[in-house]
Specification:
This protein has 180 residues and is α/β, with parallel strands linked by helices. The chain has one domain: ABC-type transport auxiliary lipoprotein component (Rossmann fold). The strands form two sheets. It has a four-stranded mixed β-sheet, covered by helices on one side. Strand 6 and strand 7 form a beta hairpin. Helix 2 packs parallel to helix 3. The longest helix is centred in the C-terminal third of the chain and has 27 residues. 25% of the residues are buried.
């Protein structure tokens, strides 16, 4: 009888400890600067970035899943600023970037960040490249798994946006660069 009581008592503290850690914690990710590796032909065409309302807002929370021993919310801030810096890092060496009166416009139609069940970051996006007359010259879309979220989370977010801009360049801009 005494052994059973002692055995149950020894199992109880770890249970309390696990319940104590199951409270949802938040990890913060601020503005990042993606560094895509892109090689395009240099152009005199002016390029702009347009973000649709379906693109994630500048600040948002992402549910990271039901892992009780890790955080369960990622709070992202400066997301649209991160997109603008990734766009500039990707295309400024090859195109003059403008806000208005562009010859080409890269339209990010949708863009979201989420996690799979294993806390791997997923970037889902759809983009298209339009000319001044509204003709679509290229499309790019995908679901890009990055990796498990690491600390600091900005490194993981920067990697996801870097991969997205590299895929957009390959899908939409490389064909234009080769044709010249």
């Amino acid at each position: 009888m005494t052994l059973r009581v002692v055995g149950r008592a020894l199992r109880f503290p770890p249970l309390l400890l696990a319940l104590g850690f199951s409270a949802c914690a938040t990890m913060n990710a601020g503005t990042v600067t993606p560094r895509p590796t892109i090689n395009l032909g240099v152009s005199t065409q002016r390029l702009a970035l347009a973000l649709s309302p379906a693109v994630a807002p500048d600040a948002f929370d992402v549910d990271c899943g039901p892992n009780p021993l890790q955080f369960c919310t990622l709070h992202v801030t400066g997301f649209r600023t991160s997109l603008a810096s990734g766009f500039a890092a990707a295309f400024q060496p090859f195109y003059p970037l403008v806000r208005d009166n562009a010859d080409l416009t890269l339209r990010l139609q949708t863009l979201s960040i989420e996690f799979d069940g294993g806390q791997r970051l997923i970037v889902r996006y759809a983009a298209q490249l339009d000319d001044r007359d509204g003709r679509t010259l290229g499309r790019s879309f995908g679901t890009l798994p990055v990796r498990r979220l690491t600390y600091p989370p900005e490194a993981t977010l920067a990697e996801g946006l870097t991969r997205m801009f590299e895929k957009v360049a390959a899908d939409c801009f490389v064909p234009l660069s080769i044709v010249r």
